[in-house]
Amino acid sequence: MTDHGADLLIRAGAVHTLVPGQAPQRALAVRGDRIAAVSADPNGLDHLVSVDTQVHDLPGATVLPAFDDTHTHLIFAALGAHDVPVHRARNIPEFLDLIRQRAAVTPDGEWIRTTTNWQELNLAERRMPSAAELDRATDRHPVLVKRGGHNDVVNTYALRLAGITEDTPVPPGGTIGRGADGKPDGRLIDNALYLVEHLVPAPDRAERIDGLRLASRDYAATGIGTVRDCAVTPEDYAVLLAAREAGALSTRVRALISALGLTSAAQVEDLLDVMEEWRDDFDPWLSVWGVKFGLDGGLEAGATEEPYACDHSFSGMLIWEKDALVDAVEAVVRRGWRVGTHAYGDRAVRTLLDVYERVLDRNPGLPAGTLVMEHGGLAGPEQHARAVALGVPITIQQPLLHDTAEVEEGFWGPERVARLFPARGWVDLGAQVSAGSDFPVGQFGAMRSVWGMTTRQTVIGVKGPEHAITYDEALTLHTTNAARLTGEEHLRGTLTPGRLADITVWERDPARCPGDTLRDFNPTLTFVGGRLVTSTGTR
């Protein structure tokens, strides 16, 4: 390549740079990992072509920046790459048979884990399996069945290993499920997960790296070039570093180191000590974004102002006392890190804004975007205004609503479910809002998320159509707004010279895809840093 040449040239029907006011371009050139030039003339960059230039001449294609998934769990996806694929089951007998098949080839006493991206209402029985049922699949192995990041079901073998009996105290912020006889039924929620999960051996390093290779490629195949992984342990981050070194990542990763399960500022300080070695290790492919806290539960335990529709004595639960969370968040920001906090129900949203307001008052001059609200599921107009006034960014996840609407209506009723993730209200107020999936609770995919935000479709029909946004607004939430959230708007989010060459190529304009076609529409090519990471037909 000459000094003035290009490594990659794409000629297309339209190159949408996402620069406000700029008309679609027709050609884009890449040198190294950066965009070198764009042109309104499809042949306007031909002078950059050399014998070494890779040329894609695609007159009918549309080019967009690669998308960010600003709240997802790549680590979970990677772990699931080798786990029992129970998301394929249609009923509990099939669910158990998949576990039974794995048990047949697993040495006695070794743990069996399942994938996490399934919903019990997709099973014919419309419920989770019990410990007793898991025992019928195998009583020779401890079994860990995960659903999302807040729920486990384990068999009797696993309960016995963990020493969980009817006399086991319930951890603060957690739930131990019990049958009519008072004995544990295998169900564990939120802060009770640790009782069993700390016993599960981590997969070996090679297996985990291969899982990241497969999972990150799957994200990239849907158009996602950067993931913000919102629950990464220090051990997980060490594996990510090894995967980066091995060239196994097909997406960039911005990691939130998990403080889930911690209950005091002193414990958080210990976590921050571990994080010190990563403070100055920014790599365009992999870096630590900050620390992740959880304030309330998920679908079954989000903290609400009004009682649940299914149980008028229950309003979810807050995992932290307000004063303790203020101290813990302060510990993080005083060390120069950012904070993302899970707040799902409206009571949790209000409480988190109270916490953030106190932290901001006591720590004047914090950089913009230091304190982020993850989800903000049931935020209403008053909390919208508070978040904007405080300068608190929000991440929303329409795929989560799409996949779980029926489950959530059972807990919260249809009126509250229709108000979840009110994108229209955030956008109209000028909030710094960005979008993601919350996989494994919601299914990841660039256009799947765009389709959901523009239609408000769910598995049980349209919910809250007044909260829909436009296609162009949805693109912004996954590109320019997402890059701003990570503090990288100077590097990513638009297709302009000097920025990283994170590019997706679509066989036709997604904006013109009819109806539900957009939901499952994937790019033909995805480039990250100028490197082709997926193309149609690759895994």
Side by side, the strands of the main sheet go 5-11-12-13-14-15-16-17
Shape: globular
Largest sheet: 8 strands, parallel
What's the architecture of the largest domain in CATH terms?
A: Alpha-Beta Barrel
How much of the sequence lies in strands comes to 15-25%
Please, what is the CATH homologous superfamily of the largest domain?
Metal-dependent hydrolases
The stretches of 5 or more residues where confidence is low (pLDDT under 50) are none
What would you report as the Rg, rounded to the nearest angstrom?
A: 23 Å
Number of beta strands:
22
Distance between the termini: 30 Å
The percent of residues in helical segments reads 25-40%
SS-based structural class? Answer: alpha/beta
CATH top level label of the largest domain? Alpha Beta
In total, how many domains does the architecture comprise? 3
As for the CATH topology of the largest domain, it is TIM Barrel
InterPro entries: Amidohydro_3 (IPR013108), Metal-dep_hydrolase_composite (IPR011059), Metal_Hydrolase (IPR032466), YtcJ-like (IPR033932)
Pfam families: Amidohydro_3
GO molecular function: hydrolase activity, acting on carbon-nitrogen (but not peptide) bonds
Protein name: Amidohydrolase 3
